[in-house]
Each structure stands twice: as C-alpha cells, then as structure tokens.
C-alpha cells in the first residue's frame, strides 16, 4: 500500500503541470496514518497548476488526514475521497477548497465505461 | 410547500413547522430541523397543562426568523384565554427558540410546560422516497441539563444537543418545566438546538474547520444585500410585491458551499428538497438575476469550476469537462447509496456554464474572471464534442451509465416520463432533447466571442462558429416535425423524432438556434390553446398522450420555463408575445403572495380562475424566484451594448409604467424606465 502511495506521488511529480489546477495555489500536507502508529507525511505544493511533491516539512495551507489503507484505495481510484470525507474517514483541516481541488489529481474508478465507445453501435 | 407550513432557513439549514411552531413526523407535510441533508429534529411539540397549542398569528420577521403567537387549544374555538404563549425562533446554523408564557390573570398561575423532542436523522433521500430505514444506531442521552440525540453509523456521526437556559426536568423524550407565573407577569426560557457533526462541533465547522456566521452577521448581510439591489417602482402592485419578495427569497436561498472562494454564496435550488448545489439551477438563477445581483454568477462559476469532472466514473455519470448536477452531504451520499458525491448526470450544465460566463462578462465587464475561467470553459466546450456526443453526429445526447440511482432524463425535465412521443411511448437511450442543442449552439457562439476577445485564440473562435453554424443548419432539418410544424421534443436512439409538442420549443428560442422564418410559427404554438393556459406555457401540450395538468413535467406550468420562453420571444423581436407570457406569470404571483412556486397546474385560466398549486412543489425555489427578474429584464428590453445599458420597453396591458433604478453593470449604475403609450397618467419619478 505504501508503495502504491509513493508511486502515486511520484506520478504527480513527474506529471508536472495540471491544467485543472491552474487556479489553485497552496501547500497540502498529507498525514497518512499506518497501523503501526507511524504517520507518513507528504507535501504537495501547487502553484497555478504546477505540481511539486516533497517530504520536507513546510507550512501547509491545508492538511488531509487519512489512514494508509483507505488512501491507497483513493489514489488507485477505487475509493471516493469526497464520500470518505463525509463519513469522517478523511479529515480536512484548513483550506477546504484546496483539499477539494486535490480531487483533480486523483484517478477515476478503474474500468469505467467511456460513452464515446458507443458511437456507431445500435 | 403546503400553505400551512412555516419555514425559516439559513443556507442549507432550515426548519419547517406547522403554524403552531410544532414539528411532528406525522404532519401532512415534511417538518423538522434539517441541516446538511439530514433531519436533526423530527419531533418538537409544545403543550401547556397537557393541552397542545393553537396559533393566533405567525409573524415572518426575516427569512431566518419567525414568531408564533399561541393559545391553549384550537384557535378556531377561541375564547378569551388567560394565558398566551410566544415562540420566537431563529435559525442561524443552529436553532434558537425563545419561549415566553404570559399570565393575563391578576392572580398567580401554575403551569406544566412540556416540550416533546425527538430525532430520526432521516436522510433527505429517505424522506423523498417515503421509507426511513436507518442502518446506524440512534441514541438518546440526558447529559446534565442537555438532551443529546445522536446518530452513528461507522465513523459517520450526527448529533442534536438540546438545552434550555432555565433548568428543566429532562428525560429521553423531552423536557418539562413546572412553573409559577406571577399576576400579569411573564416567564421566559431560551431553547437551543446545536447541530453537531464530528468532534462535538457544528456540522459545517466539523467539515470545514471554519466558524459559522452569527445572527448579527446574517442580519447585516441581508440589509446590505437589499441595499445593493436596484430599486423598482411600478403601478402594478403584484409586480412590486413579487419583486420585493423575490429579493428576500433569493437572499435566503444563497448558500455558501464548502468550496466557495472567500465565503461567497451562490443560489441553492429550493426548499425543502433541493437545499444544495445544483449546477443547472444555480446557473439558471444566476442568469435570471444578472441585472440585479451579478455577484451570484461569479460565485456560481467559481464553485462549479472547482468541481468540474476530470475522469470517467459510471456511478456518478461523470466525464472529463462535465459540470456537476448535484452535491449532497448526507448519509446516503457518504455511504454511496446515492451518487451525489458529486453527481454529474446533467447534459446541459456544461454548455450552460459557458453561456453564463459570457453573459456575465457582457453585463459586468469582469475580464479577469473570464480569463481565469478559460480552461474550465474550454473543457466544457470540449465535453460537448466528445463525451456529450454519444452518437458522434454533432448533437448532445444523454444516457445514464448509473441505471439504478442515476437520472434517466439528464435535462431540466428530469423525471422519468418527461420525454415521450406523441402517442405516449418512451424513447430508448441515448436521447437528444431539442433544448440541449440550443444550449450547445449558444455555448459555441458565446465561446467563440470569448475566445476572440479574451483568450487570444481567433482560430478556435472560427472553429466554434463553424460548428455552431453547422449545428443550426442540421438541427433545423433533423428536428423539424413537418406534420405539426414545430421542433421535436427530442431525437431517439435511431435518430428518429420524438414528436410530442412541448414547452421545449419555447425554451429553445433564447439560444438563437431557431431559423428566423420559423419563429412566428413557434410563437403561434406557444400562445395557442394546446400550450398556453392564460397563465403561462404548459410543459407538455394538451392532446399529447401523457398530458396531465398536474403532471410534474407533463402539463404543469413552470414560471422559470416561462421566463426563458418570454426572453427568447423577445430575442427574436416578438415583444407582444413575450409581454403576454410575462403578464400571465405576473398575474399568477398574486395567488402566491408574490412567491412563485416551482410549478402550478396546467388548467385553463378561464376554468379555474386561479393557478392550482402543484402538490409537492418546492417554495421558495431559486429559479422560480429568479423568474421575476428575467421577466422584468424582458419587459424593459434591458440589454448590455458595450458600456451602455440599452432599454427598449414593451409592457403588458396591465402594467402602466415600470422603472428599475441603479442597475449595476459595466456602465456603473444605470436606470431603466418603461411606460405604455396609452397609459393615461405620466409618471414623474
């Protein structure tokens, strides 16, 4: 699971610019809690769509706290972050808008149907 | 809503009670204290010496504040009472009720005051379906001088904490006061219900970590809102009443989403079922209100862009570039029993997003926002060409991928039976309703203007205009029903015409997709006996197999729909016809104390003499509230032209004169004035 999460953040870092995040700037700190009482911290810095990932401590505008197993599902697109937030399984502190913007960086559910594939099919 | 319901609200927290101020799960209409799509209080019933109370009067003080004057027993059989009771209730995220007992005797009096309290924590969707079956655990606990009603399901938690400023005997079903009131004296206590989420803090605070507004802030905000609004004067009292009512209702329906920028608010859709963000409703209401409250459009655009779809998600009917349909915060969304996290099942929100952005710029000249919204607007336009075009033929289609809890019809008429053939059959999927093609055409034309003027991309502008021209030409060929001489309600999955006559042909007009040569024919249908009732245009024409004058989208008259039809007629220069519809709807306001409901019956005006209320209509509802604003704009012919406000009035026969002062816009403030040539007295403002 930790590998999935690390791979996800690596992908974000490599992705560089995200056009959906061009209106967004700020630092999100992820507190990812493991079963072992250890908390992994990741820092996502967004500057008008430019996305950078770091493990170095810095002042966050928003904190997203979530347990490791669930976060692994979220970054794989198998769990929905918004619904988990409503269930209090994901907690936002600070700038909620920034936290919600993070959804733009998340993948959708695997195997979703693309309506464009129906073209020409009767 | 039922006329006997008394409602107060603050954003998505609202209270509905009967005229005594009581809430009771068995009431003939839904009552309770609701917040974030959950009913926190379902029983709140007051009695004095074992007797329930009846209302003398109810004062609606502000939209968030009301006062009930009561006496024991039924006020119908009222004889002079020795005691009266005042309940003064405020909702401001939490609920406060000042309870006062007045002893009118010259001797002391003793009373047993009992307040029954209960909570079922129903999700708004359980209430709509009529089946409340909780999967979590409800518990009640007396915690010193606090009655705690709590609902827990896994980590989801909601709590109502009830307290009184005067100590009470509290049990698990409410609280009792044994009181003695001196001769001609009063007794008062303050009852409070706190609406709590996680960690014992207010629900909003628990989700956002930000404090809630105080009642003083609410009052200040309303005063400022009313002071900022243009002033309206007219000889028509119905219009004046409705304008004032609508301004306050629109203020009440404003709601600050958890993702708002700088806590700015946008319109939520309507009470009681739709107190949340709906993309379509928020966009339409913001459009209607542009000349009067342009700030709503800016916050609507901001919030909808933050939640724009970026991925494929079947459960949520989501695709990249799509603007959302509906957001919810309740248990059914949290546990994904309903898809509103958010749900994207609307085929019209994406083009309408672009339409609103352009219209907003035309009124306000806010170029900064237009530049910031370039990417979301382009993504919405791209959605039209890709995911919206399921058949690959240039039209906008919809078909639910979530076939259990998604919406079958993803247009404004979103009930299951709204789209039918003349003979009543329902078409297969995908479906392409006609007004969707109008929105698409309009979005492309307006997108082209924005691309040329503000995004520095004339090539893209040319491309959009070519697509729009092509769409218009093919639309006028493929949708035109030769036999009936009107546009088909939709195309079916085979590309065949869904040939019912409907209000959608009128709703098409404001987009500009209708060929000039056909406008008079369309207007003839709209004001003819099959569609026009005398109050307004029916959603579905008399003579269609599914027509029902009290069918939600199949025969009722929707004020919102009519305001856009009138605007569309006006766009094509049919001023008299536009005035006729505006006049009918304005007449109808009289029967609703100026507050237009979501819909009313499609019976002929001559037959009933008054508009028959649709039984479960929402009221206030944002886009019905907005209808008055768009009708005023239409009657005065208000149109931005560069840095000037053009006014070209044509008033219906029963409005002699009408003026709107201090209309905000890129011109600063401007006035609009209209007077009928045959109006006998010249008004001197």
TrEMBL record, chain A:
Domain of life of the organism encoding this protein:
Bacteria
List cellular component terms (GO): cytosol
Ranges for domain SCP2:
19-105
Pfam families registered for this protein in UniProt: SCP2 (PF02036)
Q: Which InterPro entries match?
A: SCP2_sterol-bd_dom, SCP2_sterol-bd_dom_sf
What this protein is called in its record is: SCP2 domain-containing protein
What taxonomic ancestry is recorded? Bacteria, Bacillati, Actinomycetota, Actinomycetes, Micromonosporales
UniProtKB/TrEMBL annotation, chain B:
Protein name (database record): Amylo-alpha-1,6-glucosidase
Q: Which domain of life is it from?
A: Bacteria
Tell me which InterPro entries the record gives.
6-hairpin_glycosidase_sf, 6hp_glycosidase-like_sf, GDE_N_bis, MGH1-like_GH
One Gene Ontology BP term is: carbohydrate metabolic process
* Stretches assigned to the Putative glycogen debranching enzyme N-terminal domain: 9-190
What would be one Pfam family of this protein? GDE_N_bis
| Domain Mannosylglycerate hydrolase MGH1-like glycoside hydrolase residue range list | 282-588
């Amino acid at each position: 699971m930790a590998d999935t999460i690390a791979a996800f953040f690596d992908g974000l870092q490599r992705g560089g610019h995200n056009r959906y995040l061009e209106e967004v700037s700020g630092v999100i700190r992820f507190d990812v809690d493991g079963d072992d009482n250890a908390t992994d911290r990741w820092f996502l810095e967004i500057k008008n769509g430019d996305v950078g990932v770091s493990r170095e401590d810095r002042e966050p505008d928003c904190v997203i706290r979530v347990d490791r197993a669930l976060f692994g599902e979220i970054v794989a697109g198998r769990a929905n972050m918004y619904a988990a937030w409503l269930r209090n399984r994901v907690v936002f502190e600070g700038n909620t808008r920034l936290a919600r913007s993070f959804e733009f960086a998340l993948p959708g559910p695997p195997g979703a149907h693309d309506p464009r594939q129906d073209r020409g099919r009767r | 809503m039922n006329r006997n319901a008394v409602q107060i609200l603050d954003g998505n927290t609202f209270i509905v009670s009967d005229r005594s101020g009581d809430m009771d799960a068995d009431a003939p209409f839904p009552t309770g204290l609701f917040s974030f799509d959950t009913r926190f209080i379902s029983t709140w019933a007051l009695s004095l010496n074992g007797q329930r109370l009846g209302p003398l009067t109810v004062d609606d003080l502000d939209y968030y504040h009301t006062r009930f004057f009561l006496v024991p027993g039924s006020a119908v059989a009222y004889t002079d009472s020795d005691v009266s009771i005042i309940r003064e209730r405020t909702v401001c995220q939490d609920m406060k009720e000042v309870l006062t007992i007045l002893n009118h005797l010259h001797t002391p009096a003793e009373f047993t005051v009992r307040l029954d309290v209960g909570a079922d924590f129903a999700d708004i969707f359980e209430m709509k379906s009529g089946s409340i079956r909780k999967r979590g655990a409800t518990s009640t606990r007396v915690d010193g001088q606090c009655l705690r009603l709590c609902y827990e399901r896994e980590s989801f938690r909601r709590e109502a904490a009830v307290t009184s400023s005067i100590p009470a005997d509290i049990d698990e079903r409410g609280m009792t006061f044994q009181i003695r009131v001196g001769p001609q004296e009063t007794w008062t206590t303050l009852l409070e219900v706190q609406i709590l989420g996680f960690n014992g803090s207010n629900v909003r605070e628990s989700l956002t970590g930000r404090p809630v507004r105080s009642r003083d802030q609410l009052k200040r905000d309303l005063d400022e809102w009313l002071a900022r609004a243009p002033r309206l004067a007219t000889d028509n009292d119905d219009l004046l009443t409705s304008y004032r009512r609508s301004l306050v209702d629109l203020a009440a329906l404003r709601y600050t989403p958890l993702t708002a920028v700088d806590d700015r608010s946008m319109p939520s859709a309507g009470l009681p079922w739709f107190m949340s963000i709906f993309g379509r409703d928020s966009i339409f209401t913001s459009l209607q209100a542009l000349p009067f409250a342009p700030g709503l459009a800016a916050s609507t655009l901001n919030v909808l862009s933050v939640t724009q779809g970026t991925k494929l998600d079947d459960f949520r009917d989501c695709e990249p570039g799509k603007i959302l349909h509906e957001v919810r915060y309740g248990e059914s969304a949290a546990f994904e029993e309903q898809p509103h996290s958010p749900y994207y099942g609307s085929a019209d929100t994406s083009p309408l997003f672009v339409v609103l952005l352009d219209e907003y710029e035309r009124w306000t000249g806010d170029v900064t926002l237009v530049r910031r919204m370039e990417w979301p607007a382009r993504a919405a336009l791209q959605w039209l060409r890709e995911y919206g075009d399921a058949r690959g033929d240039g039209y906008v289609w919809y078909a639910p991928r979530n076939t259990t809890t998604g919406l079958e019809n993803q247009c404004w008429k979103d009930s299951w039976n709204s789209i039918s053939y003349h003979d009543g059959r329902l078409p297969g999927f995908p479906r392409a309703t006609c007004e969707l093609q109008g929105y698409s055409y309009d979005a492309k034309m307006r997108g082209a203007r924005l691309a040329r003027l503000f995004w520095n991309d004339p090539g893209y502008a040319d491309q959009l205009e070519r697509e729009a021209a092509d769409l218009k030409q093919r639309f006028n060929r493929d949708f035109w029903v030769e036999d009936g001489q009107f546009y088909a309600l939709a195309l079916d999955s085979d590309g065949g015409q869904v040939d019912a006559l409907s209000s959608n042909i009128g709703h098409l007009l404001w987009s500009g997709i209708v060929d000039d040569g056909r406008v008079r024919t369309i207007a003839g249908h709209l004001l003819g006996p099959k569609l026009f009732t005398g109050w307004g245009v029916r959603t579905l024409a008399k003579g269609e197999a599914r027509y029902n004058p009290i069918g939600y989208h199949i025969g009722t008259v929707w004020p919102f729909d009519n305001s856009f039809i009138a605007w569309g007629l006006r766009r094509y220069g049919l001023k008299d016809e536009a005035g006729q519809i505006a006049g009918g709807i304005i007449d109808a306001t009289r029967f609703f104390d100026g507050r237009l409901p979501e819909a009313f019956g499609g019976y002929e005006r001559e037959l009933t003499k008054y508009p028959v209320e649709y039984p479960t209509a929402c009221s206030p509802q944002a886009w019905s509230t907005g209808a008055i604003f768009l009708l005023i704009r239409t009657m005065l012919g208000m149109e931005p032209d560069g840095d000037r406000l053009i006014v070209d009035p044509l008033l219906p026969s029963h409005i002699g004169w009408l003026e709107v002062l201090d209309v905000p816009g890129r011109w600063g403030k401007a006035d609009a004035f209209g007077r009928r040539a045959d109006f006998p007295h010249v008004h001197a403002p």
